Predict the 3D structure of the following.
Amino acid sequence: MSGNSGGPLVRIRDLRKRFGANEVLRGVDLDVARGEVVSVIGASGSGKTTMLRCVNLLETYDSGSIAVDGVEVGYSGEGANRRRRGERELARIRADIGMVFQLFNLFPHLTARQNVMLGLIKVRRLPRAEAQQAADRWLVRVGLADKLDALPHELSGGQQQRVGIARAVAMNPKVLLLDEITSALDPELVGEVLNVVRELAAEGMTMILVTHEMSFARDVSSRIVFMDAGRVAVEGTPREVFGAQAHDRLRTFLSRIEMRH
Amino acid sequence: MNYHLNFAFVWRYFGRLGWGLALSLELAAVGIVAGIVIGLALALLAQGRGRVVRGLIAAYVEFIRNVPLLLLVYLVFYGIPSAGGFAYDATTSFVITLAVYAGAYLVEVFRAGLDAIPRGLIDAGRAIGLTPWQRTLYVVLPTMLRIVLPSLSNAFISLFKDTAIASVIAVPELTYGANWIYTNTFRIIEVYAVVTPMYLLTGWTLLLLLRQLERRFALRRS
Amino acid sequence: MTIMLKALPFLWQGLLVTLEVSGVVVVTALLLGLLMGTALTYAPRWLAWPVRAYSDIVRGLPLITLIFFVYYALPALHVNIPGWWAATGALAAFETAHVAEVARGALQSIHVGQTDAGRAIGLTFGQRMLYVIFPQALRRFLPPWINTVVDTVKGSALVSLVGIVDLMLSVQQVIGRTFEPLPLYVLGALMYFAINYTLSLLSRRLEARFAYVRE
């Protein structure tokens, strides 16, 4: 799979999708450069989670394009030869894109270590010993050295989410997608998860975060994107976006958020 | 394949199928009503009474549920009269069998329904001074009946299909009618081409009607 | 009493036939039912619909009617397979539909997030089924599946109506010789009960055991 060192790592152009009569994405344009951390904020229904899930084709899109490292995610071929990618191709592409979920989605029948190892063995085709070493390394890095053999139901929400992050990152993805990863956590557990994300960002992992954690987004992001009604409404550095607040809807949205935090 | 379809035979004897279907429905209806009476009575009886009573009821339920219906039909029709020295006609015998059969299944349904009644309702009944019997009659039963309505619907449709077993003791329901036409005309394909839709359409119609009933009356458990 | 004892060897032979028929049906229905259940849950419409139609039609008929139909229709269509296969085949077709429903229920109860997580790390459909979905669905599948096994054993009694000498027909043959219906029917019932009650207990024990493992 080619890597274009020139252009953006993730390129989204005119992304459109409708669910029945509801047009959820109305032409989203977004570029994410290598090493950037982009936080996507917006009210529910603004389409931010849908957009994120389109990047690794967990959701299909109706028109537009998404390219990761120069490779169009949903389609292959040009012009007349353009066709939807088959399951196997998609699986290979998805292996290079990591995702962490709001509800963790850990495999409940596998231990923390096995959760992380599964992708390494079956997708990256590492031998078992190597996979275990890599899994252990990542789990220790996210602070779960003593929980390697624990099953998900034996872990707290914050611990489960950290396993989820380890599982995604151990695959060595080009870009990491984080879908409101702290929204389902008790407040006191949010910090431990955000710290892991902070460290990953500092190491240069390219990330797209959908989040409600405004102060965190302001801290860790190189760019903030505010989505409204299926489009990117405001885009800029944290200072620009949170400072000026020229945009009406953004101002309303932020004031509502401030009341909750 | 040298088989030429000829439905004329089937239409000539269609009365046996039509009336057979009616009888199947009647048998199912009587079966479910009797089953409800038996099942409800036993479920109420099993609430909190002695271990002996509950053990006997459990034995009855387990026996019926683990023995083939066919065997039960024969047992009641041939077995019991031989010991008692009396005889009854096939339809009566089958109705008794079906009632006993339905009762065993419905005891479980009603027990689950009784368990599902929110504790608070019973307390409220106590609080306004109803006697145990009044509570049962005015609070517990109406609530429970609405909870179990979906299960009762499914039981009724199952019973409708179970009535086909009555054909083995010559009760003139739908399957018996089909077999009669077959043995007299050898038009197996035609007969079953008519009887299969009869079963299917009746089943689906019942399902639709009962779903309507449920929509009006059933309580969704939260 | 002596009648019952003398009958035992004959009934035992019949029991073996019952177990044989039930065994074949259980294995067939399990394999095909799992395939169909997977198709019902995951396959595209053009595959899922015919499977759904098959399942609804076969389950919408009484088993006895289905057996009669298959048993008498095949010779009429010049398909000459032995009666044993016709009856067993009909029972297998019936139970396959039921196992498919059980499998569908178990598979659909798995949270969609599991499929999401599996896809996100790049597993193919087959890998997801094998390593993520089936292991979780198994515990929701087994207890109700055992109930279909019980239904199969009970349903197998219907093959006696087309001349297969199973436990049910053996009982009737002995009655034909001894004219003592009641004790023999009771004995036959107890033999069926022994098999099925054991299976029911197993199903309940499995259900209880699985309930302890939290999701």
In short: Chain B is about 80% helix and 0% strand. Chain B touches chain C at residues 1-3, 62-63, 65-72, 74-75, 78-80, 82-83, 161-165, 167-168, 175, 178-179, 182, 186, 188-189, 192, 195-196, 199-200, 203-204 (CB under 8 Å).
